[in-house]
Amino acid sequence: MFCSTILTPHALIHLHLLPSLQAPAPRKILRTGAVNSASGSAYAEFGNTKVIVSVFGPRESKKAMMYSDVGRLNCNVSYTTFATPVRGQGSDSKEFSSILHKALEGAIILDSFPKTTVDVFALVLESGGSDLPVVISCASLALADAGIMMYDLVASVSVLKIGLGLPFGLGYAFQSLEARQFWIPEVSSVVHGVSGEEESYQDGSLMITCMHLLVMRITQLTITGEWSTPKIHEAMELCLDACSKLGKIMRLCLKETASASQE
Amino acid sequence: MGCRGGEKGVLRGLGGENVWSVLREGWLVRVLYFSGIPSTISFNLDLICNGIVVKCKVSKTVRVKVAILKRQGGEMLQDQPQGRPTVEVTGHKAHGAVPVPGSIVIARVAKVMARMASADIMCVGSKSVREKFSGIIRMVIIPSWLISTSQATYPLILFLVSPLLAKCTSTSLGVVSLSDESFDSSEAKIIAIGRTIILTYCIMRIVREVFVGHQDIRATEIDKVDMHSSFRPGDIVRASILSLGDARAYYLSTAKNELGVVSAESTAGATMVPISWTEMQCPLTGQIEQRKVAKV
Q1: Which of A104, A220, B13, B205 has its CA 20 to 30 A from that of A70?
Q2: Whole domain around residue A169: which residue ranges?
Q3: What DSSP state is assigned to residue A51?
Q4: Can you give the C-alpha Rg of chain A in angstroms?
Q5: Where is this protein found (chain B) (predicted)?
Q6: A15-19, A45-49, B35-39, B145-149 — which is least confidently predicted?
Q7: At how many degrees (to 10) do helices A131-146 and A93-105 cross?
């Protein structure tokens, strides 16, 4: 099944140009407490994408702001100048700030810190594709590290559609902590981690941000490109499954930090 | 049922039961509430928020309902069988505290003005904050006779001024008896006076309550309070948060005995020693300065 879908010449060309199919699965790192001066922070590395998020707060709002009974969330996503192969502003970084805000505000209990502001600063150190899902997941880890009350951790996964819509690529894949490779048998080809090159070939993308613990709640869904309904279903199933596994990995990461600090 | 005092004076008992004990001065009592269980506390300690340790000043028997979730060693205790088990979660970080109305805070006085002092909140409860919050201690001045007059003299004053008031109020408010014509003029006058006495007494009481509620610095001798003789810039004060206030600052209050200046520096630069509830003395120069001292 793998071969039959790749036999199209279009896809064959893609196969040669898709390095991650041949390369070993890229490493994934999730750490909290990376930044000492912040209330909470997290560092995430998925393949080539490296993101560090620091959370400040709850701290006093600026004097110019109006009084509010609930807390405020302020998000900022920025790229370093060396993040992309071409030096300069990363793609859509202004949009990313508002997307991050929308993804997180559904999960944070704003009533717990009235009149104050929580600032989330995300810095993309290296952009290796699928930046935004990594930023969102890392930001929710950093918020948990800061002790901000939330309904649930927010995990984010994106899926790319490459070529003629046949193979799927998983926006960032993940491994269980025993480093077993994870295959999705019903999908004909799995791309472990999407690099920037693969992103440039994409036909469409679907990004889901969800909280999965008690009830599966999706806080954000972003679809770009051409999708038919059955493909959307398939992609969503894939993503939700991946989100729940990612959520478990994030929790393990937090527990490790907590048990390490207790010792 | 029942308990005994521990070495440090901490009441120990299983969660949820009624604890009867004699509390002595200097004991530290931890009082916690279960959510959903009505509190039947009847004692005169200054309380309380979950988990805040209070100091007990009374030496008589006091009834306290104590629900201890966690012993000093750190084990979790479960509720009594009919109750639900409760787990308390405490954050591992010392920072991240947000000022909550009713909590005791430590603040440093930044500015002292005629009617208010602005202070930077540095600690909330026992946790320090990473970045300071702004707070304001306000004062409203009202005439001394309104406060220091005892309740017994209210009617006397009202009676003396009531003829004037009777004319003004009964005509302006339209408070006229139902059947004015059936009474002769003297009786009507007495009735009108009586009505106005009650009316103005109520108004005076309301005014007193409203203004007393705003006395944020000292509870007694309010008219003699001067901001500069209570705080100076640089003093460390213990205050309680009255409310979230406005967009700029939290409203603080030092209107209790145990609130006020905890530590202050004299003009000579030495840490002053409190000598009374209103005065502190510099150990180097012997100079006495006025502060509103907290009863620690």
Answers
A1: A220
A2: 2-15+26-262
A3: E
A4: 19
A5: Nucleus, Nucleolus
A6: B35-39
A7: 50
Indicate yes or no: CB of B134 within 8 angstroms of CB of A116.
no
The verdict on A109 touching B (C-beta cutoff 8 Å) is: no
For B64, phi and psi rounded to 5 degrees?
-130, 135
Could you report the per-residue pLDDT of A170-214, keeping only the tens digit for each?
Answer: 443 333 222 222 322 222 223 334 555 566 666 778 888 888 777
In DSSP terms, B127 is beta-bridged to B124
Q: Where are the alpha helices (DSSP H) in chain A?
A: 2-6, 9-17, 19-22, 93-105, 131-146, 196-200, 229-262
Smallest Cβ–Cβ distance between B91 and the set A60, A61, A147 belongs to: A147
Pick from B89, B95, B98 the residue to mutate for testing the A interface (most A CBs within 10 Å).
B98
Q: Does the residue B77 lie in any domain?
A: no
In a domain, A21, yes or no: no
CATH number at residue A222: 3.30.230.70
Contacts of B132 in chain A (CB under 8 A): 60
Into how many domains does chain A fold?
Answer: 1
Q: Looking at the domain assignment, is residue B278 inside a domain?
A: yes
Taking the C-alpha atoms of residue A169 and residue A193, their distance in angstroms, rounded to an integer, is 8
Which of B130, B132, B244 lies closest to A39 in CB terms? B130
Supply the CATH number for residue B258's domain. 2.40.50.140
With CA atoms as reference, the chain B residue closest to A67 would be B247
In a domain, B273, yes or no: yes
What tokens appear for A12 in the block?
């064959």
Shortest distance, CA B185 to any CA of chain A (angstroms): 57
Domain assignment present for residue A89? The answer is yes
ipTM score above 0.85: no
Answer whether B173 touches A (CB < 8 Å): no
Which tens digit of pLDDT belongs to each residue from A130-155?
Answer: 788 999 999 999 998 888 888 889 99
Domain membership flag for residue A201: yes
Positions of chain B with pLDDT lower than 70, given as ranges:
1-96, 140-185, 187, 206-225
Cα–Cα dist B19/B290, whole Å? 42
